[in-house]
Amino acid sequence: MVKICCIGAGYVGGPTMAVIALKCPEIEVAVVDISVSRITAWNSDALPIYEPGLDEVVKKCRGKNLFFSTDVEKHVSEADIVFVSVNTPTKTQGLGAGKAADLTYWESAARMIADVSKSNKIVVEKSTVPVKTAEAIEKILTHNSKGIDFQILSNPEFLAEGTAIQDLFNPDRVLIGGRETPEGQKAIAALRDVYAHWVPVDRIICSNLWSAELSKLAANAFLAQRISSVNAMSALCEATGADVSQVAHAVGKDTRIGPKFLNASVGFGGSCFQKDILNLVYICECNGLPEVANYWKQVIKINDYQKTRFVNWIVSSMFNTVSGKKIAILGFAFKKDTGDTRETPAIDVCKGLLGDKALLSIYDPQVNEEQIQRDLAMKKFDWDHPVHLQPMSPTSIKQVNVVWDAYAATKDAHGVCILTEWDEFKTLDYQRIYDNMRKPAFIFDGRNVVDEAKLRAIGFIVYSIGKPLDQWLKDMPAVA
Ligand SMILES: NC(=O)c1ccc[n+]([C@@H]2O[C@H](COP(=O)([O-])OP(=O)(O)OC[C@H]3O[C@@H](n4cnc5c(N)ncnc54)[C@H](O)[C@@H]3O)[C@@H](O)[C@H]2O)c1
Ligand SMILES: O=c1ccn([C@@H]2O[C@H](COP(=O)(O)OP(=O)(O)O[C@H]3O[C@H](CO)[C@@H](O)[C@H](O)[C@H]3O)[C@@H](O)[C@H]2O)c(=O)[nH]1
């Protein structure tokens, strides 16, 4: 029986391995982690992450050919294929701080693999890593190998949160990079055989190691660039009276451009886009390509600009002050159908409003108070470490109140900000919300989910990203 072990039971390791176990009943899959609380949760009825369809997959396989364990060394030593899906945060100190990927967790996993291995292994990079990481890992493994053969493969993950199970069941492609030697090709074939249990072979792309590593960073950079492009247009739409949804629709009808990833928003969030682009920027700089680095940096600058612009509209339209005013925040997760808050634009928007002394009442159907308080107290990039190693802030922010209901959040509020596109926000009773708010009542829709005409008819002053502005907003321009 082939044995697979995955180091890292996170958003990638957990769902990916659960699907491999489901689709390959003859393979034994162990997912291991240094975080005891994460493994306990994976072995319980309350899984550590919220992802539609995940519960069913885990329930079908757990205890049969899918195991979650903290006994990292045992499972690694027994495995034929070891996936490594640990954190690769942005460095906060030292060389490359604020840009380069911190490979501390990766390196410690590689050293442990070398220490405990007694048989040949295929080691698979599942984490997103800088180009040429495989070479570094190879060096660590071979210098400590005691005669064991390690083949390194790059198999980046392209799943998106909220649709992870769907994406894993039916991926656009699976990418496997390896050495162009007979041993490397044999390792590629072994991993291809695993995916071929359910992925059509023409969707399994094989390449060299560096192409696979770089393709992951490139794909995320291209996706994020589309969002920054449409968000840049949204500012111009507001200035000219064009409607960004109409512009995006017209542009996306060009089959060369396509309709996806053209939704203007308060900004992209999530654990990957910003981190991976910063990583790409650093690699460009290290390779003497400052112009290329600056090109990609601009994608992040526009994203930051979009969040700042949103906060400025809120403050300027409310007579240039939100001090002591209750503002309801609907949605805190970085997108719908996930409880993940990593790099969510809600953090920057909330911090901006708190900087102007607002009182925030926050509601998200999947994010609890503890998480929100942690996020608002945490320093940039500190989130991307194993939970038990994250710096904790002892105090919670008093201006922030977290509630479990959109109506409670909006009661007596001066303004409402929609920051995540949860479906339930489309069908709220906005008349009831309006009746219970202070007047004039404002809605700032950072996800373009509400029907502006209907809300205006109720009496709201409405700001929607990239849409023609209300006269009220035109009269109160934001000047930073
Ligand atoms: N989240 C996504 O949607 C996504 C998609 C594609 C790729 N990625 C990449 O995959 C990697 C993992 O991302 P994630 O979102 O799953 O992160 P995560 O923080 O959810 O999970 C990482 C896990 O690794 C564990 N870990 C760290 N060091 C360890 C070690 N030495 N031994 C055992 N366990 C260890 C941590 O405790 C944590 O549970 C990152 O490189 C990320 O960029 C993420
Ligand atoms: O038209 C759009 C599409 C997305 N977003 C925002 O962009 C962010 C990222 O969304 P999405 O890409 O759907 O989610 P992620 O889970 O971050 O997935 C991205 O990052 C993963 C980690 O690398 C990759 O595996 C995926 O392929 C890639 O889509 C979210 O804040 C979205 O709200 C927009 O603002 N407008």
TrEMBL record:
Could you tell me which SMART domains the record lists for this protein?
Answer: UDPG_MGDP_dh_C
**What domain of life is recorded for the organism?**
Eukaryota
**Which of the seven top EC classes does this enzyme belong to?**
oxidoreductase
Q: Signal peptide: which range, if any?
A: none
GO BP: glycosaminoglycan biosynthetic process; UDP-glucuronate biosynthetic process
Look up keyword Oxidoreductase and say if it applies. Answer: yes
Q: Which Gene3D superfamilies match?
A: Cytochrome c1, transmembrane anchor, C-terminal, NAD(P)-binding Rossmann-like Domain
Q: Write down the InterPro entries for this protein, in alphabetical order.
A: 6-PGluconate_DH-like_C_sf, NAD(P)-bd_dom_sf, UDP-Glc/GDP-Man, UDP-Glc/GDP-Man_DH_C, UDP-Glc/GDP-Man_DH_C_sf, UDP-Glc/GDP-Man_DH_dimer, UDP-Glc/GDP-Man_DH_N, UDPglc_DH_euk
Report which reactions are catalysed by this protein: UDP-alpha-D-glucose + 2 NAD(+) + H2O = UDP-alpha-D-glucuronate + 2 NADH + 3 H(+)
Q: Which residues form the UDP-glucose/GDP-mannose dehydrogenase C-terminal domain?
A: 328-452
- EC number(s): the record gives 1.1.1.22
The reply to whether NAD figures as a keyword in the UniProt entry is yes
The record's GO molecular-function terms, alphabetically, read:
NAD binding; UDP-glucose 6-dehydrogenase activity
Keyword terms, alphabetized: NAD, Oxidoreductase
Instruction: Give me the Gene Ontology terms describing cellular component.
Output: nucleus
Q: Where does NAD(+) bind?
A: 8-13, 33, 38, 86-90, 127-128, 161, 272-275, 342
Instruction: State the pathway, as annotated in the record.
Output: Nucleotide-sugar biosynthesis; UDP-alpha-D-glucuronate biosynthesis; UDP-alpha-D-glucuronate from UDP-alpha-D-glucose: step 1/1
In terms of SUPFAM superfamilies, this protein maps to:
6-phosphogluconate dehydrogenase C-terminal domain-like (SSF48179), NAD(P)-binding Rossmann-fold domains (SSF51735), UDP-glucose/GDP-mannose dehydrogenase C-terminal domain (SSF52413)
Cite the active-site annotation. Answer: 272 (nucleophile)
Which NCBIfam families is this protein grouped with? NDP-sugDHase
Question: Record's family?
Answer: Belongs to the UDP-glucose/GDP-mannose dehydrogenase family.
The protein here is known as UDP-glucose 6-dehydrogenase
Q: Which organism is it from?
A: Gossypium mustelinum (Cotton)
